[in-house]
Design goal:
Layout: H1 2-37, E1 40-46, E2 51-61, E3 67-69, H2 73-82
The structure holds zinc ion.
Length: 83
């Protein structure tokens, strides 16, 4: 009886390890996909007296049609979750 319980616990422990590894793999792939979309790119900003360069995100913008400055809210959310 005791052997059966130990075997059951070992199977459960291994199953949990597989689930954790699978979840980690899925999350890593999801983050890679997000990072291929949200990348910094240089953009020229036209002010009243000069033009200056800023980095914006290639993957998202604002409702008014403007780019999001880099790092965009998506990247900041990922960075905050991972720190
Ligand atoms: Zn973005």
């Amino acid at each position: 009886m005791r052997e059966k319980k130990q075997l059951y616990e070992e199977v459960e422990r291994l199953y949990t390890q597989v689930l954790i590894a699978k979840s980690r793999s899925i999350l890593e792939e999801a983050i890679k996909d997000v990072l291929t979309i949200h990348k910094p790119i240089d953009a020229a900003m036209y002010g009243p007296r000069n033009i200056h360069k800023v980095q914006v995100c290639t993957g998202c913008g604002q409702d008014d049609g403007n780019w999001n400055k880099w790092p965009c809210p998506t990247i900041r959310a990922i960075q905050e979750a991972l720190t």
